[in-house]
Amino acid sequence: MIELIAGKYNYWIYICLMMIGFYAIIAKGNLIKKIIGINIFQSAVFLFYISISKVRGGTAPILWENAVLYDNPLPHVLILTAIVVSVSTTALALALVIRIRKEFGAMEEDRIAKLRSDGP
Amino acid sequence: MALKFTLLFLLVVCAAAAVRMKDLLGAVIMLCAYSLIMTLIWTLLNAVDVALTEAAVGAGIVTVLLIAALGRTGSREEDPPPSSLIPSAKQPADRHPSSLAVVRCALPLLAVLLTGALLVYGTLDMPDYSAPASPANLHVASRYITDSAPVTGIVNFVTAILTGYRGFDTFGETVVIFAAAVGALLILGKGGKK
Amino acid sequence: MTEHFPALLVILPLLAAVLIPFSPAAVKRSAWHISFASAAASLALAARLAWEAFALGKVSYWFGGWAPPWGIEYSIDPLGALLLLLTAFVTCAALSYSRAAAPAELAAERLPYFYSCMLLFTSGLTGIIITGDIFNLYVFIEIASLAGYALIAAGRRREALVASYNYLILGTIAATFILLGIGYLYMAAGTLNMADLRERLPQVYHTKTVLTGFAFLVVGLSIKTALFPLHIWLPDAYTHAPSPVSALLAATGTKVGIYAMIRVIFTVFKPEFNPSTVPMTVILAGLACAGIIYGALVALAQTNIKRLLAYSSVSQIGYIILGAAISNQTAMTGSLLHIINHALMKASLFMCAGIILMSTGAEKTGDLKGLGRRMPLTMAAFTAAACSLAGLPLTAGFISKWHLALGAVEAGLWLVVPVILAGSLLTAVYFWKIIEPAYFSPAGERRPVRPEAPAGMLAPAVLLAALGVALGLAAHFPALGAGRAAALLLGNP
Amino acid sequence: MSGRGCGGNLIIKTVSGFLIPFIQLFALYLAAHGDLGPGGGFQGGTIFAASLILYAIVFGLDEGREKVYEKAAGVMAAAGVLVFGGIGLLCMAAGGSFLQYSALLPGDVKTAYHLGIYGVEIGVGLAVAGALLLLFMKTAGSRDD
């Protein structure tokens, strides 16, 4: 049991973070809050990838004559790409929120739903 | 080890605070703190390139974009829908409907717990954290480490993979951010006065 | 030069999309011409590649000259070739429709951005179809999705903004699930190349890690394909998007999602992977059946034409997934045929709905009285496409549903057959709600502004619908192609 | 936001005015040294964009010229992607496959890699800096709305 916890707790913390973000996305009604949730959700996944790459006793993946073991560089590369995707999504979502706020004057899901059903 | 554990703990605290805070500006600042702590953890994990990017993007650009957006949208999260917008006849029914409260809290919580449980289930027979012999570190990755410097002459493996072996992904990545820019223009229109 | 076609197929439209929005005004004015030219070039490249893929069985391309598990590979088999051809063709049709439709539904200054996003969207989809690398798949899913979110919100209707936002939130959850699933698979197998994963995963099929990764990939892709009950983003998005966008998204977006799902289930994993704890195929088939009936019933209750078509999509997607879940040769052929059929017909139907909205302002089924006489061509195309979706004999829809039912019988799933029949019947009934007033009611007081829509809008709608009938009459050819693609996919040539 | 600047706070203006050139220098260093240490076009481009955003927040941008700035940022983003894609196509023209840098200089593979990777990093940097600037300007908006 102890070994299980010692070997896996890193993964469990990322799952915990991910679920905090996931909860914010699906339970919060405020449009900006959901975007904050998405950011937490995604970077928790990034943390998971980076923890895959760690090797006990490894050094940073840059060629170095004294190095015995290197950390795995591939997840780093994947996450660099994923971070760009994440900021792109956030920016596009913010553009949508700004337009929604302009057209509906509201930023809460249920208020917008009301305005949609009453509106022209 | 103790440092990393503290940082991971702080990470959870910041994430929870960002989600709980009603003041959106505060929540954004918490998100920024979350990103900065993430940067430190990645530095500890030797992912220097990723840490640098997270510091610039997560803590920098994303925070600025969120604050700029808040400047145009208002920065308070509201609890109940204001009564003026609800037709008065419906008001008592809409104010404290128990079924709505269930949908609002219990259902998302259930979904989150189920997803989390499935994820934890998946970790049970994963290779232990930082085990050198895990499959992820053996097959493709080991070839990158032995070959990339002699073949390409690039000493930073991450750069060699990013622009060499997986250069097409990076091309896709620049197209993604370009798509976001064009998409924002399509949604918001050109600058200047309407 | 021909060996570079797989790469050029994706890169040319991408570069055209980058060129259009920030160029001098003269280039911007010809934005439509540039985008149509690059879409036409893509169609030609796709046709050539499809010919090659059917002749050789597989075409592959190594980016940067790196051998597959280390570099990124493009690989095209007959199934991918079919989808490439379909996407390129529908894109051409949607773009030629946009020439008249987009200026009517969008502000003029946004048109260059609109065309740029159309091209980004389709080249994203092309990248998803053609790639042999699972992380590259994620990158191109995001290109297509981001362009798709923007396209839905492009019109003047404010409801579209909320629809787009909701789609963005769900789509991002889906993409993150896909990323997570990829991470789990990478962790178990140490590779990202699909063919390599297929070879290396069987040794770890029993692990919980692989099972979880598979589950997250499939759930993420189910959101993207709008499989019931994860379809909630779809009706609003299709209803409020500009009509060329609805046509393109309904025809290609969800189909490519299904294709990616088929790739994961049948190419990344082998049939031996059938976890005893969770019978994946049974769940998928069950959800597909539920989706067929649910989508059709809700469509029956709709009065808004575009919303009716959107729910009809939920129902038809159920058919496609059903065939993939049964996964024998006949059912898979039916599923692929239905992908083609539904893509062409739904594009035509959304185009007709856009034409009707533009020339008469009619959005509701009740507003269509007497339209059959005033807009004979539009309503003829609409009726033909509707017949094909309902699966009437002599149409493409009959062939696909026939194969699906036959496949279900072969697999011993007798319970599924009545669902297929009931779904078809309901499809006929909800389309009758539109066709009946158009042909059999006296004209209402609404008079169309023009007798028919501009030829540029009408031609693609009529062409697509006619193709549905033609494919039904010459059923041999599509069935042969889809059959070969299905056989190679399932590994029984 | 872009029109206002940061009131008249002298301290902020002086410190920022002193810092911004160094931030930009650091950005260029990062973009150019991705092959030796951490960093690369993406990080460099982001930090360069951040320095210009800092400038816009502290000093404010010239009102009425938003269209020009927007256009410049857009051109920068498009140029970046085109540089990247252009290098890929150049490799194709030289007989390799897309982004196969070794085709550029058949005799000297390592120099070819260095050249190709520099070009690509410049492309990524331009694209990222331009796109992020554009996104900031769109998000912050002009004063009148």
Keywords:
heterotetramer, B: 194 residues, 9 helices, C: 493 residues, mainly alpha, 2 strands, 75% helix, 2% strand
Please sum up the structure shown.
The complex is a heterotetramer of chains A (120), B (194), C (493) and D (145). Chain A has helices spanning 2-27, 31-53, 73-104, 109-118.
Q: What would you say this structure looks like, in words?
A:
- The complex is a heterotetramer of chains A (120), B (194), C (493) and D (145).
- Chain A is an all-alpha fold and 120 residues long.
- Chain A has four helices and no strands.
- Chain A has helices spanning 2-27, 31-53, 73-104, 109-118.
- In chain A, helix 2 packs antiparallel against helix 3 (73-104).
- The mean pLDDT of chain A is 87.
- Chain B is mainly α.
- With 493 residues, chain C is mostly helical.
- With 145 residues, chain D is mainly alpha-helical.
- Chain D has one domain (10-140).
- The chains are: A mainly alpha (120), B mainly alpha (194), C mainly alpha (493), D mainly alpha (145).
Q: Which topology of chain A does CATH recognise?
A: Helix Hairpins
Strand order of the largest sheet of chain C: 1-2
CATH architecture of chain A: Orthogonal Bundle
What structural class do helix, strand and pairing data of chain C support?
mainly alpha
Could you tell me the mean pLDDT of chain A?
Answer: 87
Q: Count every helix of chain C, treating DSSP H or I runs of 4 or more residues as helices.
A: 20
Overall helicity of chain A: over 70%
- Euclidean distance between termini CA atoms of chain A: 61 Å
- Structure annotation, total helices of chain A: 4
- As an assembly, this protein is heterotetramer
The overall average pLDDT of chain C, rounded, is 90
Query: What profile does the largest beta sheet of chain C have?
Result: 2 strands, antiparallel
Please give the structural blueprint.
The complex is a heterotetramer of chains A (120), B (194), C (493) and D (145).
Chain A: H1 2-27, H2 31-53, H3 73-104, H4 109-118
Helix pairs in contact in A: 1-2, 2-3
Chain B: H1 2-20, H2 24-44, H3 48-73, H4 91-95, H5 98-123, H6 135-138, H7 140-152, H8 157-165, H9 167-188
Helix pairs in contact in B: 1-2, 2-3, 7-8, 8-9
Chain D: H1 10-32, H2 41-59, H3 66-93, H4 109-140
Helix pairs in contact in D: 1-2, 2-4, 3-4
